[in-house]
Amino acid sequence: MITGGTAGIGLEAAKQFLAVGAKVIITGRNQGKLDSVKKTYPNLTAIKSDVASADDAQFLYNKVSTLGGIDILYNNAGVISAPLNLGCANDKHYDRAAYEMNINYLGVIRLNNLFIEMLKSRKEAAIINTSSLLSYVPMNLAPTYSASKAAMRFYTVSLRDHLKIQKSNLKVFELLPPVVATDMAHGIPQKAITPEQLVSALIAGLSNDKLTIRVGITKLLYIISRFAPKLAYTIVNPAKNANMLRS
Ligand SMILES: NC(=O)c1ccc[n+]([C@@H]2O[C@H](COP(=O)([O-])OP(=O)(O)OC[C@H]3O[C@@H](n4cnc5c(N)ncnc54)[C@H](OP(=O)(O)O)[C@@H]3O)[C@@H](O)[C@H]2O)c1
């Protein structure tokens, strides 16, 4: 099951997982988009569910249970807000932070919590959490987005360790994409890889049991952020970003 499977990386993942013979469920907030994906890929199951809604999450769990359950929960749904200058007073700072955190971080914890016993009961199962290269270095155009991804990375490391203490077979993968050419990355002034390239790397990582899947420039930036954090910050935040920071 892929959350946020109607566009971008999630839609590409649905395509590639179907191609390797998986049964695929996608979710999203927009019924029209779900219907359109279902029309193109009649073999998948599309369920309207907002990851930020407790009621929707419970509905999703009940529905999936009646379908026989899942083996992989791929937490892909995510949002980013347009840049604002945090140095200027603005009511939107809190509202947007809450919106991003509810979807990118808290929604994932809620879904994992709902599905964890189901997943642990399977012979082989996995959770895939999506963080980002921005979990290592914050982008000043997207402060809470970056914070939500850093939170996701710390949570993922802890969840993995807690399951290990329980001697559970449930695997917890972390996908760390670089900039990927989707609607979300529109306007981000960095070179992007395609969703196809990202999902191919994800599937290779899953096949090789590579729990931390750093793709493309994320690998290099990870190393730079360890040895030269100021340089890493400058790479992610070129001077021209300042022009995009509105009040
Ligand atoms: N693109 C990048 O450069 C990049 C880099 C690093 C990490 N990532 C991460 O990769 C993931 C996918 O990003 P993307 O670039 O594919 O984004 P995208 O093109 O904007 O697609 C996001 C998908 O998530 C769905 N979605 C958004 N909010 C949702 C919610 N509350 N509940 C259910 N579905 C929701 C959207 O459909 P609806 O809006 O119709 O619900 C859409 O299907 C995100 O977690 C993102 O943070 C992306």
What does this structure look like?
By secondary structure, this protein is an alpha/beta fold. The protein has a single domain, classed as NAD(P)-binding Rossmann-like Domain (Rossmann fold). Helix content is 49%, strand content 11%. The protein has eight helices and six strands; from the N terminus they run αβαβαβαβαβαβαα. Strands 3-4-5-6 form a four-stranded parallel β-sheet, sandwiched between helices. Strands 1-2 form a two-stranded parallel sheet. Helix 2 (31-40) links the parallel strand 1 (25-28) and strand 2. Helix 1 packs across helix 6 and helix 7 packs across helix 8 (229-236). The longest helix is centred in the middle third of the chain and has 30 residues, at 92-121. The protein is globular, with a radius of gyration of 18 Å. The termini are far apart. The mean pLDDT is 96. The structure holds NADP nicotinamide-adenine-dinucleotide phosphate (NAP). Residues 3-10, 27-30, 33, 50-52, 76-79, 103, 130, 132, 177, 179-180, 182-185 line the site of NADP nicotinamide-adenine-dinucleotide phosphate.
